[in-house]
Amino acid sequence: MKPLFWVAAAKKDLLEMPEQVVDLVGYALYLAQLGLKHPQARPLKGFGSAGVLEVVEDDDGNTYSCGVYHQIQ
Predict the structure, then answer these.
(1) Whole-number Å distance between alpha carbons of 18 and 40
(2) 25-37 pLDDT tens trace
């Protein structure tokens, strides 16, 4: 399994989101560590082929977006 590195306050910010969002992003991160891609992960616009994916989830009328840098070796 690939290591997971948090940038600045990313983990703290994620854990302040609703539980449904935390669960989805957590699973997406787990899949990324295994070299896989979550079905809701899409290339983040403006990064070309840099391996940056975005996971978007709606909860209670709010939209949450998390970026994941997926380094392919």
Answers:
(1) 17
(2) 999 999 988 988 8
Q: What is the pLDDT of residues 1-13, one digit of tens each?
A: 988 888 899 999 9
CA distance 18 to 33: 23
**CB 12: neighbour CB atoms within 10 A?**
9
The full DSSP string for the chain is -------TTHHHHHHTS-HHHHHHHHHHHHHHHTT---TTEEEPTTSTTS-EEEEEEEETTEEEEEEEE----
